[in-house]
Specification:
The protein is 73% helix and 0% strand. By secondary structure, it is an all-alpha fold.
Length: 212
């Protein structure tokens, strides 16, 4: 991204992203509509991205991906392999691995609600990724955005230990995010990273449901 940043807009937009993230779990305190919080990152992330990078840049996020199937298959498999290996390492080190409580939702949730939640997570992460890319290399920007993505999962995966939970979410969720961001970068479209993210999560949740 070569756009000159307006830091007042960046500050306000980042606050909006934070509000969107907060409402994911807390929207029902204000609006008593089931699952409404899962749409908050999509709404606030869209506003924040458009505010900082411009509406044209926001529209370009959804452009036709470059080599979609090649990038989808490549990064989906990379994410699966890394997550499988790292999960084994995490369990061996921490002797615990808390699952995502989202898996307790009804089956229809994963097809009607989860896509909106995950495109919101994509906007959240790519917002920070492109923000960091203004000042640092894509690799460093990816690492920083991936760490943030991991850390926002802290309360979801809290296992009783602050240190072990932080270690887990940075290693597992952060590494997955790294490959999601790479798929976005390589295909030049959020549609690819969304597809990789969605099917990665869907496979994980379906396996979790079947094994229980």
């Amino acid at each position: 991204m070569t756009k000159q940043l307006n830091y007042s807009k960046v500050l306000f937009a980042t606050l909006l992203v934070g509000i969107g993230f907060y409402l994911v779990s807390n929207a029902n305190h204000f609006i008593s509509i089931p699952y409404i919080g899962y749409f908050s990152l999509l709404i606030f992330g869209s506003i924040a991205y458009s505010l900082v990078f411009g509406f044209n840049a926001y529209e370009k996020l959804y452009q036709k991906p470059v080599k979609f199937w090649k990038n989808f298959i490549k990064y989906f498999l990379l994410t699966q392999v890394f997550s499988f290996v790292l999960s084994i390492v995490i369990v061996a080190i921490t002797h615990t691995h808390k699952g995502n409580p989202v898996a307790s939702n009804p089956i229809w949730f994963f097809f009607l609600i989860m896509p909106f939640a995950l495109i919101g997570e994509e906007l959240f992460s790519i917002y920070f990724y492109n923000l960091f890319k203004v000042k640092v290399s894509p690799l460093v920007a990816n690492i920083l955005a991936s760490i943030i993505f991991g850390l926002i999962h802290y309360w979801t995966y809290f296992n009783g230990s602050v240190v072990l939970t932080i270690f887990q979410v940075i290693v597992l969720q952060g590494s997955a995010r790294f490959w999601f961001n790479r798929s976005y970068e390589q295909s030049n479209s959020i549609l690819t990273s969304f597809a990789v993210h969605y099917f990665f999560d869907l496979v994980g949740f379906m396996l979790s449901i079947l094994l229980h």
